[in-house]
Amino acid sequence: MAVKRRMGPEISGTRTVLIDAVEAVMREDGYGALSARSVARRAGLKYQIVFYYFETMDDLLLTSYRRRTQTVLERTEAALHSRRPLHAIWAASSDPFDAALSLEYIALSNHNPLIRSETIAFGERLRRMVADKLSRLPATAGLDPGIFTPIGITLSLSLMGSILGFETALGISGGHRETKTIAEWCLRQLEPDTRPATAKGRQA
Amino acid sequence: MAVKRRMGPEISGTRTVLIDAVEAVMREDGYGALSARSVARRAGLKYQIVFYYFETMDDLLLTSYRRRTQTVLERTEAALHSRRPLHAIWAASSDPFDAALSLEYIALSNHNPLIRSETIAFGERLRRMVADKLSRLPATAGLDPGIFTPIGITLSLSLMGSILGFETALGISGGHRETKTIAEWCLRQLEPDTRPATAKGRQA
DNA sequence: GTCTATACACCGATAGAC
DNA sequence: GTCTATCGGTGTATAGAC
């Protein structure tokens, strides 16, 4: 299974630099522009070095994607443990910088079998995690729990947020203000700010 | 501006076949797999014929995209004129077959300047159209019109629907049932079925 | 650890034969 | 209207020099 040629170590600065370069190329030029040459160029190295650290381009891509999903997993976990989980998840999913990369990987999943199976497995795992940790919502708004389940609400908000974020990165803004207004209203209803208001003008 | 070499007519069966092939390749293998060779192969022709009908690959791609946006525009217009516009828009946006192609074009916009400007212009135009035609919602649920604007509601639903559709095409289903439950509840509240119920068991 | 050299397939695009 | 032939550039991947 393993390749015959000489390979570099699993832990290496250059290896990390190459993975960083994959993300940079994905963000700026999309997955279609991704190649050993484009990645190495971005890292300031000759393209053959890619094959010293990674068996194939798919290997590099999958490694990069796994680092990415790990980051998302950790951020989601942190958001679920924060004071207002839904607010935190909304903020994270609608961030334009991250949304662009996420959508690129999602689109890539559509025709790369390795990335697709990883996306499916990761997506299901992430949602199970959310469903477990957020098994009960603060029923502040008196919502029907048969309709408004924690996973349904969380997913609705993060799906909306992620496209809004991507569109912002792209340069589309029509209807965003109105959509955010609705989302933020829902967030306020579901997670009212219970913290005592900070006296204005007294910040250090 | 125009190219020097001999070019085919604007109206031609082969031209249409090539545009159909672009959509097929985009759907099945993604925009990264799109090339004159892959498109022609799909159409059962030699790849050089592409450059007889289209000046460049970008020209072919943009032409295909414009046919696509035109279709979406017409469907949206039809949905807005239907008995329950929001229900119709939800159904259209969450269709997996269409959602996959749409997302592919959106992702492509991220790194192809021509497609990007087309996407931005089309997105804004579509939303203006929705905002104009749907300037008032049936205020059945007693919602605050300062929060729940027609464009905000429509966009929220179509954003959710389009990713659900794409994920379905991809093979992810976690949380979908719960999310659809919420969306459909909202749709029922906003657009209750006023048509007299059909007697069951009497269908032709 | 990174480089040069090399292999072969595919890319967009053009010119000209039929 | 569609084909063959051809171009330089880029794609993944390997072998071996330094």
Shape of chain A: elongated
Order of helices and strands of chain A: HHHHHHHHH
Total discrete domains of chain A: 2
**Largest interface, C-beta within 8 A:** A-B, 55 and 55 residues
Strand content of chain A: under 5%
For the largest beta-sheet of chain A, the strand count, sense and barrel status come to: none
Put simply, the count of helices of chain A is: 9
Oligomer: homodimer
Ends apart, CA distance between termini of chain A: 60 Å
Structural class of chain A: mainly alpha
Question: Can you describe this structure?
Answer:
Two copies of one chain form a homodimer. Chain A has 204 residues and is mostly helical. In chain A, 65% of the residues lie in helices and 0% in strands. Chain A has helices spanning 13-29, 36-43, 50-53, 57-80, 85-93, 96-109, 113-133, 150-170, 176-190. In chain A, helix 1 (13-29) packs across helix 2 (36-43). The longest helix of chain A is centred in the middle third of the chain and has 24 residues, at 57-80. Chains A and B meet through helix 6, helix 7, helix 8 and helix 9 of A and helix 6, helix 7, helix 8 and helix 9 of B. The structure holds a DNA duplex (18 and 18 nucleotides).
Features:
204 residues, homodimer, DNA-binding, 2 domains, Arc Repressor Mutant, subunit A
Summarize the structure in short:
The structure is a homodimer of 204-residue chains. Helix content of chain A is 65%, strand content 0%.
Write the layout of secondary structure elements.
The structure is a homodimer.
Chain A: H1 13-29, H2 36-43, H3 50-53, H4 57-80, H5 85-93, H6 96-109, H7 113-133, H8 150-170, H9 176-190
Chain A binds a DNA duplex (18 and 18 nucleotides) through α3.
